[in-house]
Design goal:
single chain, alpha/beta, 3-stranded antiparallel sheet, 11 helices
Length: 331
């Protein structure tokens, strides 16, 4: 591996060398064409060389220590059978300034993550400190509000937790809902029956489901009624018991819709409300949002948790966080 050195940060220069005892895992650790190492170099201001099972890191003492901890933590995940993808690498690097890399790496880099969600297709581990708290609140509380920008994993983690509880029998049904609000554009007449008309609005929920369950199980459970995906209007007049209920894009509900939805809560259920308070597509804007109204009314209620994500928690490509910052900064 040979690349132009990246200038180190200001401060005392340092060098360390890591030895990995499972060389067959190094291609996954380094990434295709060493992309993971390049990310470390660019984000932390270090220079990395790899020869055989040895990895050398040069830079300031602080940046070298951070790069070392990230590589050791990622290697530990590989040893535990977890997959390393660019999103996880970026999340770990983004958290590198936190003293213990909370949620990804503890002071012992080989330690398992503090919490995880197991589904039929994959095991989901937290990729930021806020995701760690979010996963914990999904276990502790009856109603959870997940607030923040796109790309922070609000809906994805909620669906994964719902699938895990459905698999174990903790709940009997999984109900996914979303307001059918056009995001700024007029779609006009949509052909087909009611399912054909509303499915485009619910596609992100389907995507998360198929990521956690085999396709045939998703279809079978939908057909049997174990999984229900419907617009929020279909919730009126119902009591949702023994169910894991998720409302996505909640910022596009009206206050009356939000009240109606929250009061559907039944025995042995869990309810998650996901939304970005700053991305309201309703004609009245932020002031018309049922999500913002609910947050102002319900903060501090027992058995109800509010988890607030920021752009630092974005686990898509790092540029997504910068784009969100640019738009919100100019709002």
């Amino acid at each position: 591996m040979s690349r132009k050195p990246v200038p180190a940060r200001m401060g005392e220069k340092s060098r360390t060398e890591l030895n990995f005892d499972r060389p067959e895992l190094l291609p996954q650790l380094f990434g295709e064409y060493d992309t993971n190492l390049v990310s470390l170099e660019n984000r932390l201001g270090v220079y990395i060389t790899a020869r055989g099972d040895k990895v050398g890191i040069e830079g300031t003492a602080e940046s070298v220590a951070l790069a070392r901890d990230v590589l050791q933590g990622l290697h530990a995940r590989l040893l535990q059978g977890q997959e390393i993808d660019p999103g996880l690498v970026d999340a770990v690097i983004a958290m590198a300034s936190e003293p213990t890399l909370d949620g990804i790496i503890s002071r012992d880099p080989s330690a398992p993550p503090p919490i995880m969600i197991r589904t039929r297709k994959k095991t989901i581990v937290p990729r930021s400190a806020t995701q760690t708290r979010y996963m914990q609140e999904l276990v502790r509380n009856d109603i959870i509000f997940a607030l923040g920008p796109a790309g922070t994993g609000k809906t994805y983690i909620a669906v994964a937790q719902a699938v895990a509880q459905l698999i174990t029998g903790s709940v009997q049904r999984l109900i996914l809902s979303r307001p059918a609000v056009e995001a700024g554009e007029k779609l006009g007449f949509l052909p087909g029956d009611m399912k054909d008309k509303v499915d485009p609005y619910l596609r992100p929920l389907y995507d998360a489901l198929y990521d956690c369950l085999p396709a045939e199980q998703v279809e079978r459970r939908i057909a049997s009624g174990e999984i229900e995906i419907a617009p929020i209007a279909f919730m009126r007049g119902r009591t949702l018991s023994d169910a894991f209920v998720i409302l996505d894009e909640a910022q596009n509900t009206t206050p009356m819709q939000m009240k109606m939805f929250l009061t559907r809560f039944g025995q042995n259920s869990r309810m998650v409300v996901c939304g970005d308070p700053n991305q309201v597509d309703l004609p009245g804007g932020v002031a018309a949002s049922g999500l913002n109204d609910a947050v102002s009314r319900l903060e501090g209620i027992q058995s109800l948790a509010m988890v607030r994500f920021t752009t630092a928690d974005v686990v898509r490509h790092p540029i997504v966080g910068r784009i969100v910052d640019a738009y919100e900064g100019g709002a």
